[in-house]
């Protein structure tokens, strides 16, 4: 095709689930809106508890705050558009906005992956080097590590998006996905995408498998250390401390690894199922993580229950001893009359 006959796209259309019948658009949009609200409320409650309780200002919770922020921002950059696509039939997204969303999607995914690796290192040091934990994993050091994670995650993502944006997009503009990601968008390019897709795939594997290797190493050392504890109660306590993080890590990595493995060994799914799997491992962790930390972490649970009781007590019905302004005024008037009466006597 000659350059003069090419018509380059100026915007894209996010299809979402290609096999979804229009009769179910409202139901799907309402369901996604409910998920978004759960993510905002659940993570917002934890942020509020963290901000108002200095007892939670510990390294482990600082790491989790980084994860919470990444989860909320990821959900905010992806869910509103797909909700609008099904609720208002507004699936159009501009060229620049699509690539910006692509950048954010992969950026927050990278931040999550690195943060989970930091979380595993934190537990490794806490279990294997308990006497040096507070000197190594201080709040200051955790803050520095979190900042490094958020900054370092930018590097390769920017290059990936910059390399993808100049490609000639001259064909279809329909993105068969719930948001703009590198694979779905570059698939629409009117050129050989191998020189662009392969480096992106390698980067994704380095981030995913590199973080996973750190996590596997950390928890392998933790398991070996726990098995050396003679007390069954001690072993149970350590496993209980790590269980919530293990669930979070499993929710993030296992579906992703399955998705990449299935794609490389030739296991294929229909488009709707594949998108459902991607949305599951993208949105389930942000929704479940606050619940896990509230139920599995005794300290957070106690603070949450205490706050709940205080709010219920302050917002409850007034007690019988409370009086209205008119009652107090009448009482004051009666008291003055009583004083005058006794003075007369």
From TrEMBL:
The keyword Transmembrane helix applies. Signal peptide: none annotated. InterPro entries: GPCR_Rhodpsn, GPCR_Rhodpsn_7TM, Olfact_rcpt, Olfactory_GPCR1. PROSITE patterns: G_PROTEIN_RECEP_F1_1, G_PROTEIN_RECEP_F1_2. It is found in: Cell membrane. It is a multi-pass membrane protein. It comes from the Eukaryota. The chain crosses the membrane at residues 24-49, 61-83, 103-121, 142-162, 201-226, 238-255, 261-284. SUPFAM superfamilies: Family A G protein-coupled receptor-like. Belongs to the G-protein coupled receptor 1 family. This is Olfactory receptor. The lineage of its organism: Eukaryota, Metazoa, Chordata, Craniata, Vertebrata.
């Amino acid at each position: 095709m000659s350059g003069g006959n090419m018509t380059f796209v100026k915007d894209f259309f996010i299809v979402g689930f290609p096999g979804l019948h229009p009769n179910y658009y409202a139901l799907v949009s309402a369901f996604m809106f409910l998920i978004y609200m759960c993510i905002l409320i659940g993570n917002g409650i934890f942020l509020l508890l963290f901000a108002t309780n200095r007892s939670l200002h510990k390294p482990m919770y600082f790491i989790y705050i980084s994860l919470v922020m990444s989860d909320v921002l990821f959900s905010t950059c992806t869910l509103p558009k797909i909700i609008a696509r099904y609720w208002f039939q507004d699936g159009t997204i501009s060229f620049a906005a699509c690539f910006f969303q692509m950048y954010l999607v992969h950026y927050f995914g990278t931040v999550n992956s690195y943060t989970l690796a930091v979380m595993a290192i934190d537990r490794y040091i806490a279990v294997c080097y308990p006497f040096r934990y507070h000197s190594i994993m201080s709040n200051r050091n955790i803050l520095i590590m979190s900042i490094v994670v958020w900054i370092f995650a930018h590097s390769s993502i920017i290059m990936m998006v910059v390399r993808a944006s100049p490609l000639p997009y001259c064909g279809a503009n329909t993105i068969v996905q719930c948001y703009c990601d590198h694979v779905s968008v570059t698939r629409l390019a009117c050129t050989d995408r191998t020189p662009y897709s392969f480096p992106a795939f390698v980067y994704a594997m380095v981030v995913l498998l590199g973080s996973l290797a750190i996590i596997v190493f950390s928890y392998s050392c933790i398991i070996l250390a726990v098995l050396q504890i003679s007390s069954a109660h001690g072993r149970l306590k350590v496993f209980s401390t790590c269980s919530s993080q293990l669930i979070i890590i499993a929710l993030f990595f296992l579906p992703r690894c399955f998705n990449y493995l299935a794609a490389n060994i030739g296991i294929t799914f229909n488009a709707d199922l594949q998108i459902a799997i991607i949305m599951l491992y993208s949105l389930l962790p942000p929704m479940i993580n606050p619940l896990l930390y509230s139920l599995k972490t005794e300290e957070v649970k106690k603070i949450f229950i205490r706050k709940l009781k205080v709010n219920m007590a302050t917002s409850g019905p007034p007690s019988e001893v409370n009086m209205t302004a008119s009652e107090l005024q009448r009482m004051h008037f009666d008291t003055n009359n009583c004083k005058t009466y006794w003075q007369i006597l």
